[in-house]
Structures are given as structure tokens and as C-alpha cells.
Write a structure and sequence with these properties.
- This protein is α/β, with parallel strands linked by helices and about 300 residues long.
- It has a single domain, classed as Spore Coat Polysaccharide Biosynthesis Protein SpsA, Chain A (Alpha-Beta Complex).
- About 40% of the residues lie in helices and about 15% in strands.
- The strands form three sheets. The protein has a five-stranded mixed sheet, with helices on both faces. A three-stranded mixed sheet has the order 6-9-7, with helices on one face. It has a two-stranded antiparallel ribbon with strand order 5-10.
- Strand 1, helix 1 and strand 2 form a beta-alpha-beta unit.
- Helix 9 crosses helix 10.
Length: about 300
């Protein structure tokens, strides 16, 4: 394996959402490091005939994309599904480059997104307690950072799937089979500790292991928890998630301020603290976002029941 000391390759996963894919790529093209970055695009095959024409539209568009150092398009011949596609695709690229930046097709980025991700990868490469980097953060209005908190980043034990980056040594240690699940599912203490990252985590893992969910992310999060590692977040988000319109695999309509940003961070971070500190107020506000999400899902289920 060669370790690329330059910029991390970008890996983008797309499916059948042409409008979202265009917005995602157009924002990436505006990044100040785009022309120096290699872009790998994984286009999954259709689950059924209903999606075939939409996937072909996306693939036709991808052939016109430019603005990067090198573009490689991988058109799946069969449907992998998001989880298997990400695990396979990331493994292939990270084994060659030693690091990777990952996006899905519903993420609009700031022109400084790639700068932040690459700088973070460089600064925390040797900090083995750091599991991953993300360019996303909940809105500053929702997070309500203490006035005394002056850092441009913060740490949390929960990884984020809405843009992320990591290194090969972290990725290679992931137990995708969750071999210790039998002991976890009977440990109230372990479930409580895992849920400190959000009340949805244990439920998601149970659904994954019971075959009700197919998610790379919940297994990724569980491994971060078991290894007691952290993710780096920007104080002001470099990413907007535009997938909360019922168009994505795991995204539903949600207009709460926790997911929406009127502006993206337009400045580069220059201060990357080496000491990992967790701030109570930040953790509470962060976790509150997932509590709200859980309550919304319960409300939606109740509405469906009473409408019958």
C-alpha cells in the first residue's frame, strides 16, 4: 500500500437522484482544492426496473463532469445497496491511498470543505484516538455554543455519515459482523453507554442485527464506541444535507433548524487542538438533535396509526 502524502481522494456514492447529484458535484467543483483532488464516483445499479432510467440519467450526467485532477466512474453491474457499496468502495480506495474523504449524493459543500477535511486528516493522522473527521455540524443556532468556547472545532464520540474522512488503519479495524453483539444485547450498561451518543443508536444496531436495517453507519458508530474513539466536527458546518425530502434511503422530510443552514463556513480552520476535550453543553445540544429525531419518528408512526 502506498500512502499518498498529498490530498485525500474523494469518494462519492450516487444512485438515482439526478438533481441532488448535480448540486453535490457542482458545489464540490467550486472547492478551492477540487482541481488538485482525485474523484471516484460509485454509481450503484438499479434495485428494479423502475429506477433504471433514473440511474441512466445520472450516469449520462457523470460523463460530463470535469474540474478535478482525475475522475474515475465505477458503474456497478448489479445492485449493491448503499451499505455494501460504501464498505466495498471505501475499502478499495483507502487501501491504495491510506486515507479518504467520503460523500453521498445529497450533500452540498462549502468551497473550503476539502481544505478542512484534508487539513484535519493531516493534523490528526498520528492522534490514534481520533476515529474520523466530518465537515458537517448542526446549525450554530441549535448548538448554541457557549460564548467562552473559542475553538473552531469540537469533538464527539459519535461519528457522522453526512461527509466523513478517515485513515486506513482506523478503517481496517472495523468489525462489520459485530461479533460481540450477543454480549452487547444483554448488557443494559453497554446499551446505556452507547446511547450517550444519541438515543437512536442501540435501536438502530438492534434493527441492523435483526435484519430490519441495512446500514454501514450504525456498525461504524458501534466500532467507534467500542474502541472509545472520537470524531472531529467543525463548529460551523461546511456541509448542508439536502436529502431531507423523502428522496434518500435513510432520510425523511425534516425542516427543523438542526438540519438547515442559511450559510456554510467560508473560512479555513487554522487551529487544530491536539488535546481532546468534551464540553458538556455541546454534547447535550448535539445529542438533543437525535432525541428530536426519535420523537419525530414516533409522532409520524402514531399519525399513521390513527389515520387508519
Amino acid at each position: 500500500m502506498k500512502f499518498n502524502k498529498d490530498l485525500a481522494p474523494i469518494v462519492l456514492f450516487v444512485y438515482n437522484r439526478l438533481d441532488h447529484t448535480q448540486l453535490t458535484i457542482e458545489s464540490l467543483q467550486k472547492n478551492i482544492l477540487a482541481e488538485e483532488s482525485e474523484l471516484y464516483i460509485y454509481s450503484d445499479a438499479a434495485k428494479n426496473n423502475n429506477s433504471s432510467h433514473m440511474i441512466q440519467e445520472v450516469r449520462n450526467y457523470l460523463k460530463s463532469v470535469n474540474g478535478f485532477k482525475k475522475i474515475t466512474i465505477i458503474e456497478r453491474k448489479k445492485n449493491f445497496g448503499l451499505a455494501a457499496s460504501i464498505i466495498d468502495g471505501v475499502s478499495s480506495i483507502i487501501n491504495e491511498y491510506g486515507k479518504v474523504i467520503v460523500l453521498e449524493d445529497d450533500l452540498v459543500t462549502s468551497p473550503y470543505f476539502l481544505q478542512f477535511m484534508n487539513d484535519s486528516l493531516d493534523n490528526y493522522k498520528e492522534t490514534k484516538d481520533i476515529f474520523s473527521i466530518t465537515g458537517f455540524s448542526f446549525s450554530t443556532k441549535f448548538m448554541n455554543f457557549p460564548k467562552s468556547y473559542l475553538s473552531d472545532i469540537y469533538f464527539h464520540k459519535r461519528p457522522m455519515s453526512w461527509s466523513w474522512a478517515t485513515w486506513s488503519d482506523r478503517w481496517s479495524n472495523i468489525d462489520w459482523d459485530v461479533k460481540d453483539y450477543d454480549s452487547f444485547k444483554i448488557s443494559i450498561k453497554q446499551q446505556y453507554l452507547f446511547n450517550r451518543g444519541g438515543p437512536d443508536l442501540t435501536r438502530m444496531l438492534k434493527n441492523q442485527m435483526n435484519g430490519k436495517l441495512d446500514s454501514w453507519y450504525i456498525r461504524w458508530s458501534y466500532n467507534a464506541f467500542k474502541q472509545n474513539k472520537y470524531t472531529v466536527y467543525p463548529k460551523i458546518s461546511y456541509v448542508n444535507n439536502i436529502g431531507h425530502d423523502n428522496s434518500g434511503v435513510h432520510c425523511s422530510t425534516d425542516e427543523d433548524m438542526i438540519y438547515s443552514h442559511t450559510e456554510l463556513n467560508q473560512e479555513k480552520v487554522t487551529n487544530f487542538p491536539k488535546e481532546i476535550k468534551l464540553v458538556g453543553k455541546i454534547l447535550n445540544n448535539f445529542n438533543k438533535a437525535f432525541k428530536i429525531k426519535v420523537f419525530q419518528k414516533i409522532k409520524e408512526k402514531l399519525i399513521k396509526i390513527f389515520k387508519k
